[in-house]
Write a structure and sequence with these properties.
The chain has 11 helices and 12 strands. The chain has about 290 residues and is an alpha/beta fold. The strands form 3 sheets. The chain has a 5-stranded mixed beta sheet with strand order 4-3-5-12-6, sandwiched between helices. Helix 1 packs across helix 3, helix 1 packs across helix 4 and helix 2 packs across helix 3. It is globular, with a radius of gyration of 21 Å. This is LysR family transcriptional regulator. It holds the Pfam family LysR_substrate. Keywords: DNA-binding, Transcription, Transcription regulation.
Length: about 290
């Protein structure tokens, strides 16, 4: 009888982390491993699967069909592993309510699976999530309406910490070009908005005229307007639809935009056990090495 082959959980985690971060060098830093060690793990994974997992794409790597399939399975395997470890590692059952605020970028991508896994591991704990813009989430934390919130921008609260810094980029439709000499058509949230402020400040400093051609209360509306070719928007690449592209500022005749901070706010200096547990999970997921 032939013994079944088993994937190494650490190797799968390196694989998934590298794909999520878009770089295995960043994955090595995030996981505390050396780049040669990560390369050996990826070779081990390819040998075990018997498939080519990556193909060259410009200066980087892209997943093959086999790589995409394995990635989907790896995410599910790791989710179950982490859910089991979370449940079994609990010294006592967590119960009560936990109120979390999150930005739209993460609400449509990475956070719902995390919240689902957290809820399954702690079935007596009820999680209430609010999706909103940063200023409103910070105000809700300070009022005590939320236990914790993740926000873009430098808004401060009584109990906040810096998670990561992300570059702000110009984003446009695949076939859209900014017209030289014309006011830059901005697609953005109305103020207050850290991304809009960064664009307006950079354009004003460069002496470039601009006009806001589209605003929306939701991120989906901004993406739809960019897709339609109404103008350009300013965000990070988090949650950016794959059919859109990041503009090279120099080639597009646009100023560089700098970066934006990702912040974590808690209502209490010493959070309760449920808030502390979810806070630690969020920090592990959202901290991206630069």
């Amino acid at each position: 009888m032939v013994s079944p082959r088993n994937f190494d959980m650490d190797v799968l985690r390196t694989f998934v982390t590298g794909v999520r971060l878009g770089s295995f060098a960043k994955a090595a830093e995030a996981l505390g491993r050396t780049p040669p060690a990560v390369s050996l793990q990826l070779k081990k994974l390819a040998d075990l699967s018997g498939q080519t997992l990556f193909t060259k794409q410009g200066r980087g790597l892209a997943l093959t069909d086999a790589g995409e399939a394995l990635h989907d399975y790896a995410v599910r395997i790791l989710d179950l592993n982490d859910e089991a470890m979370m449940m079994l590692g609990s010294s006592r059952a967590l119960d009560g309510w936990l109120r979390l605020g999150i930005p739209q970028d993460f609400a449509e991508t990475s956070l719902p699976p995390v919240l689902g896994r957290f809820s399954r591991a702690h079935p007596k704990l009820r999680v209430e999530a609010r999706v909103d813009r940063g200023a409103r989430l910070v105000a809700a934390v300070e009022r005590g309406d939320l236990d914790m919130a993740v926000t873009w921008g430098g808004q401060k609260s009584a109990h906040c910490r810096h998670i990561a810094t992300h570059p702000i980029v110009w984003i446009a439709a695949a076939d859209y070009d900014v017209s030289a000499g014309e006011p830059v058509p901005l697609i953005a949230f109305d103020p207050p908005c850290s991304f809009r402020a960064a664009a307006v400040d950079a354009l004003s400093a460069a002496g470039r005229e601009w006009r806001q051609v589209f605003s929306s209360p939701g991120l989906a509306g901004l993406w739809a307007a960019v897709t339609a070719g109404l103008g350009v928007t300013i965000r990070t690449t988090t949650g950016m639809p794959a059919h859109l592209r990041v503009l090279d500022p120099q080639r597009a005749g646009l100023p560089a935009l700098g970066s934006v901070d990702l912040m974590l706010h808690t209502a209490e200096a010493a959070p309760s056990a449920p808030v502390g547990r979810l806070r630690d999970i969020l920090l592990e997921m959202l901290v991206i090495p630069t």
